[in-house]
Backbone:
């Protein structure tokens, strides 16, 4: 495996391993996915990622393809059951960082709204008017800018697209989210320095590159209990594109 393809290991024990998942890489194989964290990490650790025998890399939870951050895997069936049970019973603590469009009127809030498949789009989720699966998300303002807000988000349940749909439902969609907050037709998704700094001009002969052009959501922290009863906290620092965007917003996004 090439060094650039290796995943950053944030924490590891005999039972489990947590990695820094990059944006754009799927958690598991899919119909249109030839590369994924599960297979890449299996090669990196010399562990099979399929089959029934242990040790084997086993999925515990997932992150959306374009979300970055802490991703946890088990190395055997007992550990998978132990960790999956905590996710299913919502006893694992999760913290995300989200850059959203808009500015909330309050410093913090709670969203308690059931989710279900969108009636007109099978790839999307929506707040259910009737029925649905219970979902609850807490959020807190970290930093405000002219057009954007940086939030710390605490999902208390783990439903598909929960953070994305819940924040959208209160008028705070992720700043970049092609599925739920698509740009106008003909406009490429992304936050550009030229949109923040009025006198900015790209180098002559070069086209401007976005500060960030992917889902503005990062799974920063995961806290769980291992099989020995020890509380483990794994932190994944913001990746370079996210850090650069926040830095430039801090410099130019309040003018």
Residues:
């Amino acid at each position: 495996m090439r060094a650039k393809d290796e995943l950053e290991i944030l924490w590891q024990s005999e039972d489990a391993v947590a990695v820094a998942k990059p944006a754009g890489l799927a958690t598991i194989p899919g119909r249109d996915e030839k590369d994924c964290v599960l297979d890449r990490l299996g090669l990196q650790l010399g562990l099979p990622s399929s089959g029934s025998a242990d040790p084997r890399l086993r999925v515990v939870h997932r992150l959306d393809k374009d979300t970055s951050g802490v991703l946890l895997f088990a190395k055997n069936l007992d550990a998978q059951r132990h960790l999956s049970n905590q996710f299913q019973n919502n006893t694992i603590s999760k913290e995300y960082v989200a850059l959203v469009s808009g500015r909330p009127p309050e410093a913090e809030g709670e969203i308690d709204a059931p989710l279900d498949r969108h009636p007109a789009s099978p790839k999307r989720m929506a707040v259910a008017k009737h029925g649905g699966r219970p979902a609850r998300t807490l959020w807190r303002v970290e930093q405000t800018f002219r057009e954007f807000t940086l939030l710390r988000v605490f999902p208390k349940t783990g439903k598909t697209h929960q953070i994305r749909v819940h924040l959208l439902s209160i008028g705070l969609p992720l700043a970049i989210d092609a599925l739920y907050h698509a740009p106008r037709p003909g406009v490429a998704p992304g936050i550009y320095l030229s949109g923040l700094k009025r006198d900015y001009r790209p180098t002559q002969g070069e086209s401007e590159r976005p500060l960030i052009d992917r889902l503005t959501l990062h799974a920063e922290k995961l806290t769980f209990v291992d099989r020995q009863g020890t509380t483990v906290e794994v932190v994944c620092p913001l990746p370079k594109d996210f850090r650069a965007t926040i830095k430039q917003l801090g410099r130019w996004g309040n003018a």
